[in-house]
Amino acid sequence: MAVLTKKRYRFGGTLTANDGDGLPVEYHAGDPVPDEWLRRRSPGEVSALRGNGLLREIGAPLAPQRAPEPPRRPTVEEILRNTGWSAAAVEDGQVVNGPRGYTITVLERAARDADLKRVAGAHPPFEIPVVVHRVGDELVATLPLARLAARLGMVPAR
Which residues contact 30 (CB under 8 A, 6 or more apart)? Predict the structure, then answer.
């Protein structure tokens, strides 16, 4: 009994090719690859078809799957645009064309006491200072609790 060393393949997708008479033939995923079709292909072509998954060796282990990319966190602009301020943009660390009545400062670093004191300090009426900074991987907005309570309707604004 002879030992078979010839590799056998199946198609990994839909492929249209010409047969020995030059007529187009369509092969589908899972169909075995005919020997005469394989003989008409060069080793480079077979290698390329294996590389892009159109030919799969029977009995060979599957190629490892690529790890999915972790989800990307939305930027400050994307968050504001998704909530209705379509013209919002961050320019020089300030949000422009954002919600009216708010002065939003975006920090590219962790917030320091001086940044947070700016939020709690004196400011013009009808202008609420907000500092956006990162805590871990999350964007966090800091604003005075009295203003937040007023916005949520818990206490009257002062």
Answer: 10, 11
